[in-house]
Design brief:
This protein is an alpha+beta fold. It has twelve helices and twelve strands.
């Protein structure tokens, strides 16, 4: 039932059946989630001084994220300094709530049980009329859950195809002409996401979210859901090779550093073909399915 805390029935159906490749907005049914994860709940957490320092990011466009020293005192989060930064227009990002808040951990685990996809949860608190991050894209499907206020999301179609993990991350492949070109062309769509609504934002879609209202701040959660891909399945199949002693034998240093490397690679490829051909996929499937539902990833 975890996804139904974030999306109405048709949204859950769309996600699980179609995995949309274009943004979709839904009016959220009021559930126990909305009674539990409120603006006050997240504000108390943000400004109590107990958020793990590595899970905080403080940013105000167009500048980069601030150094941790801007909100730490004696190596610990300084709630007063963090609140002051928020008061001067900085967005506060609270990362990986599923690691530190039991309710969010249970929700995240429930989503993984439903989808087979690991996930993580960030919260963003943005002051009125301000912006944290500028144009970028993400590596996974995001369920954006607006808790308070309204966040404006100008969106552009992907500039790269199916970014994944470190491959084609925004900052790794960034080009100076991206933002001028996007702004000149104008967004594909502009969504004003209101409290009580959720947005499905597929991976790769460029977004430039900000609070347009000068009198109303915004609080939203991003549930980032890491899609399983054929590469993930291939990794599971290859991982079984460690059970074969032939794959655990030493390759001599001289073969790694010398001309024999290509020969060793060819031998490994032939052995891998044989290994894959001998696998009983029906026998292996339960273990792969269980891994999908329980395996944690720590890339964010």
């Amino acid at each position: 039932m975890s996804l139904r805390l974030l999306l109405p029935d048709d949204g859950v159906t769309d996600l699980l059946r179609d995995w949309p490749d274009e943004p979709r907005v839904y009016d959220r049914d009021q559930t126990v989630f909305d009674e539990t994860v409120t603006e006050a709940f997240l504000g108390d957490y943000a400004f109590a001084g107990c958020v793990p320092a590595p899970e905080i990011a403080v940013m105000k466009a167009p500048g980069p994220s601030l150094n941790q020293n801007s909100y730490l005192t004696d190596g610990r989060v300084d709630a007063a300094r963090l609140r002051k930064l928020y008061g001067t227009g900085h967005t506060i990002r609270l990362g990986n709530l599923q690691r530190v808040i039991p309710y969010m951990a249970a929700l995240s685990q429930g989503i993984q049980q439903e989808t087979g996809f690991s996930n993580y949860v960030h919260a963003f608190l943005t002051p009125a009329g301000e912006q944290g991050l500028r144009h970028h894209w993400d590596q996974q499907m995001a369920v954006i859950v607006q808790i308070a206020g309204t966040k404006r999301w100008p969106l552009w179609r992907p500039s790269v195809e199916a970014p994944m993990r470190e491959y084609s991350e925004s900052w790794r492949v960034w080009r100076p002409h991206y933002i001028p070109a996007w702004e000149a062309a104008g967004p594909e769509v502009v969504i004003d996401l209101r409290a009580g609504q959720s947005l499905l934002l597929p991976r790769g879609w460029v977004h430039n979210p900000h609070v347009a209202d000068e009198s109303e701040h915004s609080v939203h959660l991003t549930f980032a859901i890491r899609e399983r891909t054929p590469l993930w399945l291939a990794e599971k199949l290859v991982a079984e090779a460690i059970k074969d002693p032939a794959f655990r034998r030493i390759i001599l240093p001289g073969d790694i550093t010398g001309a024999a490397l290509v020969d060793r690679m060819q031998e490994a490829r032939r052995a891998l073909h044989q290994h894959l051909g001998k696998l009983d996929l029906a026998d292996l499937a339960p273990a792969v399915r269980e891994a999908a539902k329980t395996e944690l990833e720590y890339r964010t």
